[in-house]
Amino acid sequence: MTRLFSPVVLVSLFLSLSSAICSATVENAADCVAVGTLISSCTEFVNYGYPDPVPGSSCCDAMTVLGTYSDSSDKRRWLCNCFIDLISVYNSNATAISTLSGFCGIVLGFTIDPNTDCNFIQ
């Protein structure tokens, strides 16, 4: 399999996206774009249902960044709202988006589901 990016480029991208997520504030909805950018590494799975994301894949690495970010109630509520926004845009792929954290073994502190009320996340 041919790699599209060298490991150095991937690490740089991962670190820059990590800092974009970690510097986000609850009030800044534009930072949901950073969440979408991270989730874009899961595009094949979200669009086609394969290959399943596995720990160590770029998709699961992105989910790990998001899991690390969800260390407070405010951040979990904000992140939940970002996922709900993604699901509303990519409604036909809601199931795939909902299963990402489970495939990757990441606990976000909430269920990714279109029916989740993010306001009640602790």
UniProtKB/TrEMBL annotation:
Organism from which the protein derives: Raphanus sativus
Keywords in alphabetical order: Signal
GO terms of molecular function: lipid binding
Gene3D superfamilies with a match to the protein in the record: Plant lipid-transfer and hydrophobic proteins (1.10.110.10)
Signal peptide: 1-20
Biological processes, Gene Ontology terms: lipid transport
Family statement drawn from the similarity comment of this UniProt entry: Belongs to the plant LTP family.
Stated name of the protein: Non-specific lipid-transfer protein 14 isoform X2
